[in-house]
């Protein structure tokens, strides 16, 4: 009896050749965005995916239903900017009803969040990540090449009001651009229930020229935070994501440190990505893609989709090669992969 149960249990788990359990799918629902962050998109001339090539919500739901049966239990929606895609809240409520999906989250630039927070919460979204790289309105316009700083803050406040939790604020720290704000972001955690996460700047497709010299490494950031106050590590029994978590004494919120470049966490990687045009990517930094759209649109069966998932699993690289001579900057823009 126990043997059958164990077999069924293991049947519902996906492992790659490096014995990593894969249970997390990040879905980029659009490559479009209402901002033009310098590190992510060019100001002009971005090649957009033609509308007819973008997966419909029905197609994505079918992929998730098939993958959930195999062991995918966590979904994050991202983009581009996911909140600009029409019908996103209804789509989320359909995702939330898929058997096996236990965790649903979303990454947004926050500009439209004030209007969406309530309906996202009702749709079954558990938690949210909001990207914000500066606490200065003019700097916001410089970094994103658009206005909207106040709107993002209204969005954050609304997310707190409707109790989306946790609310994580993602800050990409770049030397010479926003590095003087490391400390001000940290102070937000003292009185707000926010997790401020510092993310190392990564080489990606079309953002403004990526220079290694512009990276502010996590050890550098940590050392600056230690000058703000005593940081205590928050212990965790098991792998709960790439952020190393800390708290300042007496703070309501938390600090998260994410160092994909200086301290790669590939050994623990549990992710696959689905691009807006229906390709599975096995690593943020590899251009190898496994098609699912062709199967969805040419009469492929659920078994075919499952096979594509297994191909993806088998070809997931052991690690990325940033900082080594093997590294090649990937061709797709971060906004068309889903960062
Ligand atoms: N538009 C949404 C947003 O900004 O949150 C979702 C998509 S965006 C591509 C997802 C995340 O990727 C954001 O937190 C953004 O800051 C991050 N990102 C984009 N380009 C990056 C880069 N070159 N290095 C590090 N993070 C990057
Ligand atoms: Fe848009 Fe997000 Fe990229 Fe900024 S980081 S341009 S908000 S997709």
Write the layout of secondary structure elements.
Blueprint (H helix, E strand, L loop, with lengths): L1 H10 L12 E5 L28 H14 L3 E5 L9 H9 L6 E6 L4 H11 L3 E5 L5 H8 L4 H13 L5 E7 L8 H10 L2 E7 L17 H11 L2 E3 L10 E5 L5 E5 L12 E4 L4 E3 L7 E3 L1 H5 L4 H14 L24
Parallel strand pairs: 1-2, 1-10, 2-3, 3-4, 4-5, 5-6, 6-9
Antiparallel strand pairs: 7-8, 8-9, 10-11, 11-12
Helix pairs in contact: 2-10, 3-4, 4-6, 7-8
Bound molecules: S-adenosylmethionine and iron/sulfur cluster.
Walkthrough of the structure:
By secondary structure, the protein is an alpha/beta fold. The protein has one domain: Alpha-Beta Barrel (TIM Barrel), CATH 3.20.20.70. It is 31% helix and 17% strand. A twelve-stranded mixed sheet has the order 7-8-9-6-5-4-3-2-1-10-11-12. Helix 4 runs parallel beside helix 6. It is globular and about 55 Å long. The N and C termini lie far apart (43 Å). The model has no long low-confidence stretch (mean pLDDT 91). Bound molecules: S-adenosylmethionine (SAM) and iron/sulfur cluster. Iron/sulfur cluster (SF4) binds next to loops.
